Inverse folding.
């Protein structure tokens, strides 16, 4: 019961956060821009516009969803501590587990709402103007599902940072660093490896293993897992190497969701105030 | 039944010792002040009581249970806490904060209104906390702590930065809560302010308890010099010359102050009351601040 009290407070605070609102607007605005730019390719390859939009939104979400999630979570513990609220919060009749779990759920729901609003606005012009195939609707559903999981993963990662550091500014720096590593540097390193002499010897399962080490790549594989969408992805080559089922990718993503969250909970239980 | 019990507590942060062999109890109905210089261990004692940290040795009991462990939630329902510096979410309104805490503590809507009125903050309940003054935030902090009528109220430097009116509201509320049969324990540096509101003092020095009793007991045990205020009409020079024998004089036209050693108190009073020029007299006890400094001075000597 107490978890829900904390959840609703966090959700209310997050949704009134002007930076989160700004990010939702950016997500929707960029999505709408992609609708107009992306529609030119559909005529030649004979796929519907939603499929193209899913591929475009997927590329956009790789940058924005982890950013929103880290932004909302990086100061969850250290910020409360710095403001002198953490001791007061933990003096209430709640356990540390309930407090952090309530916060996590509140933040996750806020990110889910942001994703829904951003995506729905970005596809409204398509929904009202074109006929949609079952495949494209499935692709869109998978994009939403994988984006929700990706958001949860990065909230958990943000919590670990927030529990471990002593200053909010350090947490912000580390969060930006992690975003760069997961979203950009990891893939650059992976591509570098694949074109190197060492990388040429790697088989498909080894490449898959490397992809699983980054939740952003798992998200990419999940959201591009329908054949039609995959054609439009810049990562088409990797998509072809990938032999993992959607179920297995989902399980990997769930593991990425649960492990950081429980690690954050474990560390938080040991925090001295 | 003791509400707060510290038994042979030892605590250190890393290798730096903070508390050593600290033991004391605070009973129901008592308004107790933790006093001592910065770094004496006051906040650490509060953290131990709230279960935020564990002692290296010894035990802490809050309402007869260990604050850490399986009774954690049950115990936390019995306490109210006000931290030293409160920065509530500035975007929330006062009432939202109270409703949030009330939900967690299982307190009613009527209780919210009662506590906001008691602490004189009800008028600002619909304002954003960001627009509150320091005193208003502190009073809101006290109101949330008193929700659910906790058996034990714990406050860390509750009066820091408050104006005299807000301090008076705060201390009166604490005194009333203690008189209702609850336990109040707070740390403070404002010794002269708290004197008339508290029943008991725990004086900490260098991580240990220097004294643990009431202010009256402190005064009796220290046998400090006493100041007597005398009002006179047409007093003769010989009266003042005789008075000088008992201690140091400080006088103007109508009021005379004399500071006499504890051992000279009764003879001085006898001399004063035997003179017909004396129209009134008043014994001025040593202030808590004087007692505090005296105790620390004695401790340094020993």
């Amino acid at each position: 019961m107490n978890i829900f009290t904390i959840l609703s407070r966090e959700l209310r605070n997050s949704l009134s956060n002007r930076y989160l609102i700004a990010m939702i607007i950016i997500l929707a605005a960029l999505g709408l821009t992609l609708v107009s730019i992306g529609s030119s390719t559909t005529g030649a390859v004979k796929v519907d516009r939603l499929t193209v939009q899913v591929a475009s939104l997927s590329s956009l979400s790789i940058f924005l969803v982890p950013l929103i999630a880290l932004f909302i979570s990086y100061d969850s513990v250290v910020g409360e501590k710095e403001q002198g609220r953490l001791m007061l919060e933990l003096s209430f009749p709640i356990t540390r587990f309930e407090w952090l779990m309530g916060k996590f759920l509140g933040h996750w729901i806020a990110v889910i709402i942001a994703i829904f609003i951003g995506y729905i606005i970005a596809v409204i012009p398509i929904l009202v103007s074109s006929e949609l195939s079952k495949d494209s609707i499935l692709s869109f559903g998978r994009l939403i599902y994988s984006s929700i999981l990706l958001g949860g993963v990065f909230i958990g990662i943000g919590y670990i940072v927030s529990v471990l550091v002593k200053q909010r500014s350090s947490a912000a720096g580390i969060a930006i660093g992690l975003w760069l590593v997961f979203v950009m540097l990891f893939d650059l390193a992976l591509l570098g490896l694949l074109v190197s002499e060492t990388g040429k010897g790697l088989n498909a399962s080894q490449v898959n293993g490397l992809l699983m080490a980054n939740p952003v790549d798992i998200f990419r594989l999940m959201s591009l897992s329908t054949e039609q969408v995959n054609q439009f992805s810049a990562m088409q080559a990797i998509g072809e190497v990938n032999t993992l089922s959607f179920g297995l990718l989902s399980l990997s993503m769930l593991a990425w969701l649960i492990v950081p969250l429980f690690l954050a909970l474990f560390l938080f239980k040991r925090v001295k105030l | 039944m003791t509400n707060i019990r510290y038994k042979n507590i030892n605590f250190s942060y890393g290798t730096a010792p903070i508390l050593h062999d600290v033991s004391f109890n605070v009973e129901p109905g008592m308004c107790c002040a933790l006093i001592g210089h910065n770094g004496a261990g006051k906040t650490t004692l509060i953290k131990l009581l709230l279960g935020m940290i564990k002692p290296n040795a010894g035990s802490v009991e809050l309402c007869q249970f260990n604050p850490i462990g399986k009774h954690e939630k049950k115990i936390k329902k019995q306490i109210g806490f006000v931290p030293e510096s409160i920065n509530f979410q500035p975007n929330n309104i006062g009432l939202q904060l109270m409703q949030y805490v009330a939900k967690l503590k299982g307190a009613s809507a009527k209780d919210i209104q009662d506590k906001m009125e008691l602490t004189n903050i009800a008028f600002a309940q619909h304002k954003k906390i960001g627009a509150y003054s320091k005193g208003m935030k502190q009073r809101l902090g006290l109101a949330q702590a008193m929700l659910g009528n906790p058996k034990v109220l714990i406050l860390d430097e509750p009066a820091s930065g408050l104006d005299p009116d807000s301090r008076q509201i705060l201390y009166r509320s604490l005194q009333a809560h203690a008189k209702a049969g609850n336990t109040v324990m707070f740390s403070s540096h404002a010794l002269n302010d708290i004197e008339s509101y508290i029943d008991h003092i725990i004086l900490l020095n260098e991580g240990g308890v220097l004294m643990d009793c009431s202010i009256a007991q402190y005064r009796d045990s220290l046998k400090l010099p006493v100041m007597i205020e005398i009002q006179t009409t047409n007093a003769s020079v010989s009266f003042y010359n005789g008075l000088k024998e008992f201690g140091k004089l400080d006088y103007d036209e109508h009021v005379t102050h004399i500071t006499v050693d504890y051992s000279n108190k009764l003879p001085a009073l006898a001399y004063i009351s035997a003179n017909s020029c004396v129209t009134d007299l008043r014994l001025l006890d040593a202030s808590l601040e004087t007692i505090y400094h005296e105790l620390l001075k004695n401790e340094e000597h020993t």
Remarks:
- Residues 96-129 of chain A form the longest helix (34 residues).
